[in-house]
């Protein structure tokens, strides 16, 4: 089984297993990233809105300085936040990201969400969906303007690949009518409770690879939409446990392998070195057809990263 996917246009190889940085406290981030790289991770998925990019950069720098890894062996991802979709703000926001990382370029830059909100300072210590008056304020900025500014980052040699996050088929269809550079990646929520099979099949048919976030489902989130509150914890689900015991693996490995066997990149996060290493160890065993069938049977079309007042403080059905 391959451990990498090859991206369109550049042919760059993205590891099937990477390390996520969301919800890591800034004070812990540098050491955790250093440990992750030391444990074998070569893909780091970050974002300006996570509030810890500078510390991610510190961890990367230490790993490079200590000779653990060379820059060209790393695949570094960040994302453009909603406040910065304007053509006048894309590069200035990206410059903050590049400064945070302390790098000359990054490997992949994604539009984080397919909607624009009112501008705030990109150096704000805590970026949210709200403006400086703590109000949710949408801005009328078309994605074609944002995408052209993303393409300009590629032209400048600052970004090798560009892509999308949390976009649906309709928004991607529109983008493909004008994109000079086809998106390399779509990053979406994916786990047995949310298969999105038609979306993934179509996206891959367009030459766009997929990164899965929230591979452990509702385990990842403190608050979930009320429509999903009845679902058992995915990480401890009896079906997942049974399959894990069958293969002599832990439940997390099963959920990650469920994605990687479908050539979907995963980006699990852990603060424990032992769990970091086990999350990487996905290629020495294989789920069989019955395992996949049982896991797919858990599908409930349950999206946990969705915009409800109890989760993010506003209602915006962008996935519908």
Short summary:
GO terms for molecular function: oxidoreductase activity, acting on the CH-OH group of donors, NAD or NADP as acceptor. With 320 residues, the protein is an alpha/beta fold.
Describe the overall structure:
This protein is α/β, with parallel strands linked by helices and 320 residues long. It has a single domain (4-296), classed as TIM Barrel (Alpha-Beta Barrel). The protein contains 10 helices and 10 strands. The protein has an 8-stranded parallel beta sheet. Helix 1 packs parallel to helix 2, helix 2 crosses helix 3 (90-101) and helix 7 (238-247) packs across helix 8. The longest helix is centred in the first third of the chain and has 14 residues, at 26-39. The radius of gyration is 19 Å and the shape is globular. The relative contact order is 0.14. One of its GO terms (molecular function) is oxidoreductase activity, acting on the CH-OH group of donors, NAD or NADP as acceptor. Residues 19-299 form the NADP-dependent oxidoreductase domain. This is NADP-dependent oxidoreductase domain-containing protein.
